[in-house]
Amino acid sequence: MKPKSSWTDIYQVVKAIPEGCVATYGQVAKLAGRPGHARQVGYALAAPSTEDLPWHRVINARGEISLPDLGGRKGLQRALLEDDGVEFDSRGRVDLKRFRWKPEEKDRVSWI
DNA sequence: AACATGACCATTA
DNA sequence: GTAATGGCCATGT
Predict the structure, then answer these.
(1) For residue A104, is pLDDT > 60?
(2) What is the largest CA-CA distance in chain A?
(3) Angle CA A34–A40–A43, to nearest 5
(4) Rounded to an integer, what distance in angstroms lies between the CA atom of residue A5 and that of residue A47?
(5) To the nearest whole number, what is the mean pLDDT of chain A?
(6) Which nt has its C1' nearest the CA of A7?
(7) Rg over CA atoms, chain A
């Protein structure tokens, strides 16, 4: 099954992120079959189509939230992650070592 | 078609 | 640990 748009696959991957786990932009891009397109992932999540997407589970490679303090989305993301069971550091960083989502073979290219 | 912008990543110093 | 550089691609003007 091939994606219609460039963002469709990205949305699919984000939707597949289980509760209590987080994925980096590069990770999502790679899983979406587009390694190196991390920037596009962030751009896709910035779109208004994120209403039904767990965008809060997608963070940058530093394990921190890249969102600006606009619209209170940053605070919302932290609240949602904490509600999912993800712990935050004193600096507002997440321990990717423990909470990073590990995708499996069957969950990999099922939609590609 | 070209230019500028953007919730980024990896490498190197 | 931080700072700087190059690359990658979609969207809007």
Answers:
(1) yes
(2) 43
(3) 155
(4) 14
(5) 85
(6) C10
(7) 13
Confidence of residue A61 (pLDDT cuts 50, 70, 90): very high
Q: Which amino acid is at A50?
A: T
- Judge if the beta carbon of A43 is closer than 7 A to nucleic acid strand C: yes
Distance A96 CA to C1 C1' (A): 18
Token readout for A46 is 């910035």
Q: Which nucleotide is nearest to A68 (CA to C1')?
A: B7
Q: Is A90's CB less than 7 Å from nucleic acid strand C? A: no
**Does the pLDDT of residue A3 top 70, yes or no?**
no
Per-residue pLDDT for A55 more than 60?
yes
Q: Which residue has the higher pLDDT, A106 or A80?
A: A80
CA of A9 to C1' of B11 (A): 28
What is the rounded distance in angstroms from the CA atom of residue A46 to the CA atom of residue A41? 9
In single-letter form, the type of residue at position A15 comes to K
**Residues A66, A12: Cα–Cα separation, whole Å:** 21
